[in-house]
Amino acid sequence: MRRILIILSFCLPLLSVFSQNTPIDYITASAPCAPGVQREVRAVWLTTLSGLDWPRIKSKSTASMEQQKEELRQILDKLQACGINTVIFQTRIRGTVIYPSSIEPFDPCLTGKAGQNPGYDPLKFAIDECHRRNMELHAWVVAFPICKNTVVKELGNKTLPRLRPDLCQPSNEQWLMDPGVPGTADYLARLCAEIASRYDIDGISLDYIRYPEAGIKFSDAKTYKKYGNGLSLKQWRTQNVDRCVEAVCKSVKSVKPWIKMSCSPVGKYADLPRFSSRGWNARDAVNQDVIKWMNKGWMDLIFPMMYFTGKHFYPFVPDWKKKAGDKVVAPGLGIYFLSKNEKNWPLRTISDQLTFVRQCQTGGIALYREQFLRENHKGLYDYLKNYHFVKPALPPAISHDGVKPQKPKAIRTDVGTKAVLKWEKATDIHHYNIYMLNDTVFCDSTIRIVAQNLQKTEYTFAPALHQTLRHTLAVTAVDAFGQESEPCILPCEGNTHDVINHEKNIIDIPSLAAHTLIVTDLTGKKLLQKPYSRRLDISHLPAGFYILRSIGKKQAHHTIKYFYHDTSRGETE
């Protein structure tokens, strides 16, 4: 109890502003796991640097290449099984990449030797395997840090410090790109455009798109003198990072406007009135004005690295939510601190954070990093699979100016133990989703994903339990941006109750143990509510399909009938 009160003392002053209707028990890990969640980022960072997460096996022959690929398949299988829907896959590492690029050489993580081709395209392979499991892949691009001196010696003239010394600055035993040189933005934009144009990626996520923190050797005095143009050092540095972000965004969106742009900023945006960032925040410490990037439309979502606890975590989550507006904020949680070799956090630290973030409705979470999830430190994997991620969720759509897809025209044919769904193929549709509805109402708390990312226009529903076949199904169309159409509702054939004798604009109701009658549309929106009687006037309803339902003891809902109201004839069918 004392622990909960301490956390509440940090959070309630802020949450009173951002979450007026949030119940007090949001902070406990025993809070419900939000069965209505339907769209939510559930991401994990998969690190290829030094093979930290993958690959552990080096591709040095045909056999080892296949072992390396199988290693990734097993990782993705496990991520899919626990509910992860987004993989942030490290693609540009340190001035090196994991795909055959015309700009930068292969990273040594693949073969053990920098610049060596592994014999296949790891990025394409990872994308295909993620999509096969209905997971998005976001190409993780490390922006400014580049290779160490040892890699420069190994690769020689293939490295960025040799090819473009004008863009680079030495920093201790490695090199960094200099954001103050205008060519840096152009270079990063060209690299990201290469990835976007060649691959069917779902997003590009920029990492370390910031100036180095205090304590890291970095001298840009000459650059500032040449390009400062009368600005203060802080203003100039912030402007430089802005320019790089804008250039990357515009280059990617010009190729494929539906690719999601994101970044992983420092975990606190700025100081709060009652809580200090202790000198470590995105805006003031490392020149990341992330909120500006979101307001300008350069970022579709962000993954702030919130690897903190207590007052360093809880007050800053609703602050991000407030400042980001309608954009998705998926806080990055430091699950590696669960390890006994790190900070040895108890599971409760992460489970409380997961519950709190969901109650703040930020749009999702990200976990750093994959190995610590896979290895089930403190039982985190089991907790996510069996509790927090029990119900599947789709990644959120990104906002754009286009029109939502039209509802598909579908038919359902029930044959024995199967239901066959068919619909017309529509233009500008990326894929289709199938849902199963509980009691015919299409809303987040009553639906379950049956199939997603369908490219074909036919689906056979063959549940193991035959009685499940009597559930209503729905088909939706989804465009490349993730925007979903209104559902085409498909009840089980014969799965309605007859209404006894009806007249014009009047429905006769059977004798029921009910106290209320309601009429909804097929999405579950309530249009009419009346005390139970044996006759219901529906004359004011426009033409269309409806559901007539009753409410009885203990608020139990019962579907009486689907009906079509034909105003041209003044009759109900």
Descriptive report:
There is one protein chain. This protein has 573 residues and is α/β, with parallel strands linked by helices. It has 3 domains: 387 residues, Glycosidases (TIM Barrel); 81 residues, Immunoglobulins (Immunoglobulin-like); 71 residues, Immunoglobulin-like, CATH 2.60.40.3080. The chain has a 9-stranded parallel beta sheet with strand order 10-9-8-7-3-2-1-12-11. The longest helix has 23 residues. The N and C termini lie far apart (58 Å).
Task: Give keywords.
nine-stranded parallel beta sheet, alpha/beta, 573 residues, Immunoglobulin-like, elongated, disordered N terminus, 14 helices, TIM Barrel, 3 domains, 23% strand
Strand order of the largest sheet: 10-9-8-7-3-2-1-12-11
Strand content: 15-25%
Shape: elongated
Low-confidence regions: 1-36, 496-503
Largest sheet: 9 strands, parallel
* Helical coverage, percent range: 25-40%
